[in-house]
Known about the structure:
By secondary structure, the protein is mostly helical. It is about 65% helix and about 5% strand. Strands 1-3-2 form a 3-stranded antiparallel β-sheet. Strands 4-6-5 form a 3-stranded antiparallel β-sheet, sandwiched between helices. Helix 7 packs across helix 9 and helix 10 packs antiparallel against helix 11. The protein starts with 15 loop residues before the first helix and ends with a helix.
Amino acid sequence: MSNSTEMSLPPEWDDDERMTFMFSDFKENREVNTSDWDSKMDFWSALILKCCRDRGTVCVNLQELNKTFRRKEKSPMGLRTVIQSMAGRGNIQRESEFAANVDCGWLSWGVGLLLVKPLKWTFSTFLGSSRLPMDESFVIIELVKEKAAELLRAYRSSEFASSPILSFQELCTLSSKVCADESTLCMALLQLQRDKQVTVSLHEGEKIVKFCHPSQDRISPVSDVDIGIFQLQRSEKLLGERVEKLGLDADKCKEEARLLLREGKKSQALRSLRGRKRVEKRADNLFAQLESIRGILDRIAQSQTDKMVMQAYQSGVAALRLSLKDVTVERAENLVDQIQELCDTQDEVNQTISSVSGADDDMDELEQELKSLLDESKTDSLLDFPEAPTKNLQPSGKAGLAGFEQKKTTSPARRLEPAQ
Length: 420
């Protein structure tokens, strides 16, 4: 951490009255004014966490905090109390304790010593002591877990994902956009070791890091097979670089021969071409070796895939055998017979119920048909009614009405009389 210009400060930072209270020391007894104590503690705890997250760091110490939060030539007086309180709540932890807790004990944990060599290890101070060293470094647990998760995602999405083992230098290059410095990388690796996602060991004086496969719950120890794959991958990389360099040398020899030929130096141009042939021959030999190594790596990768498939088959067979443990052909046939018998019984019951309710259904149908016939008869009677006369249909009084009725009844008879 450096000065405060590299971070975003809260709005109240410009409030002199508010900052005077925040920069004052804590009371010796929290019970004197609980709300003031807690508000000040929450302010500084949240600000420390925010500043470290913005800068991508996971460690803090009093000396850097005093410089970072310096305001108008003054530093906060209560940061020591804040650090002690955060440590008491488990929000932060000493680097030494954090590393030592990865394994059963610090003395037996040689791998941790390889990782945190650039860090300072101190065991002489206590949280309750007011003589907390200014340069005592503390790990912020929340941030180191976030950084460890980011590092694991960066590895699994990189070109190295197919390689279970990386050199520490390769990992430094890979994590350059994730971890601000090597110390942050070491803390993230320690957290991944806590989570059983990474193991670190020493091979021929070089630190190597093995990542857990996504299909596994925890990391397995570095085996001879892992070392063999790591050496093959290193050989592949070195041979590839040499082949590329020899190709450039061959092109350079060819260009020199062209220039010498333009200058009329034919013999020197021939020597350059012979040199080009020798370089190309070495490049071809190295390329053949490179292809052999790549073929071996492909076979290893295929064998790993076959191994996973075989394990899946074995798990499937075991699960199938367990699921069919109490299942036999005789039991299955018996169950089918019982089901068929029950289905037949149900069909008979349904048929009996249908026969009982059928009479009512027939009666309903008959009533409906009768109603339809009545409606048809009414319709026919209306159609047979004679047409009303269009003239002289306005009789007056009873006489006129009687005459109208008489005419209505006698007129058909008159139509039937023969002509005289």
